[in-house]
Amino acid sequence: MAWIYLLIAGCLEIGWAIGLKYTEGWSRFWPSLATIATMVASFYCLALAVKEIPIGTSYAIWTGIGAVGTASLGIVLFAEPVSAMRIACMGLIVAGIVGLKLA
User: Fold this and answer.
1) What is the 3-state secondary structure (H, E, C) of 14-44?
2) What is the mean pLDDT of residues 87-100?
3) Model-level pTM?
């Protein structure tokens, strides 16, 4: 169950990171409220995960999921630049996540 909590926490991290864009510097109430709620939920799920998974592994996987997911959605939602180097680096992050899961 801890790995499921960690996956949920990572997905919620993507949600709040993308939500930051929509808050427009915390000047929009509803996007700001949704972003804060998503942050709290993400940290809560991460806290549940670290009860069973080592903190170093949990944190690295949580941030990795967030980084790759946010970068991917940035490309899709906000037309951020796509390059071979950017994709390769995201691939390296995914390889690190898989490696930590297997270790």
Assistant:
1) HHHHHHHHHHCCCCCHHHHHHHHHHHHHHHH
2) 95
3) 0.92
